[in-house]
Design brief:
7 helices, 40% helix, 6 strands, alpha+beta
C-alpha cells in the first residue's frame, strides 16, 4: 500500500506541475483489518492515508467491527461519514454514542440509532460534513431522520 500512496502523490504532483484541469483520484478500500495487528491503531501508513491522502485525491473506505479498539483517534477524526449497523455489543454502541454526541446529546443520538436499525438489514448513515443536525442522519441512504422528530419520541 505504501507504494500505491507514493505513486499517487507523485502523479498528482506531476498533474499540478503540468497545470492539468483534472487530477486523477483513487479509492482505497480497507476491509476489516482488525485481524492484522500491523494495521491497527499505531499504523503510520493508515494514519498517513487518512491525514494526507485527500491532498493526493485519495478516498478511503474502511470497514471494521470495533472502531475504537482498532482505529486510531487521528483516523477517526478525519472521517466524513459513518455507517453503523445494529451493534451486538452494547459496549460498541456506547463507544459510538460517546464519540459522536457533540452535535446532539447521547440520548437523542441513541434514539436516532434505534430508529435507523429498527428494521432488518438497515443501518444508520451519519454525514459528518453536515452542519445542520436535521441534515446529518439517515436510515440507510433513503430516509432522513430529523433530530427534532427523534428527540420528541
Amino acid at each position: 500500500m505504501s507504494k500505491i500512496l507514493d505513486q499517487q502523490f507523485a502523479i498528482v504532483e506531476l498533474s499540478r506541475q503540468k497545470k492539468r484541469k483534472t487530477e486523477p483520484s483513487i479509492l482505497i478500500i480497507i476491509d476489516d483489518f482488525s485481524a492484522e495487528p500491523e494495521m491497527t491503531k499505531n499504523n503510520r501508513l493508515v494514519n498517513r492515508l487518512y491525514t494526507r491522502g485527500r491532498h493526493a485525491r485519495i478516498s478511503t473506505i474502511t470497514s471494521v467491527h470495533r472502531i475504537k479498539s482498532v482505529v486510531n483517534p487521528i483516523v477517526r477524526a478525519q472521517c466524513t461519514a459513518i455507517f453503523l449497523f445494529r451493534q451486538k455489543a452494547f459496549f460498541e454502541l456506547q463507544n459510538f454514542l460517546e464519540e459522536n454526541s457533540a452535535v446532539v446529546g447521547k440520548d437523542v443520538l441513541e434514539k436516532v440509532y434505534r430508529i435507523a436499525v429498527a428494521q432488518p438489514f438497515q443501518f444508520l448513515y451519519v454525514d459528518l460534513r453536515a452542519t445542520d443536525p436535521n441534515e446529518m442522519f439517515f436510515i440507510g441512504f433513503q430516509q432522513r431522520i430529523r433530530v427534532s422528530d427523534a428527540s420528541a419520541s
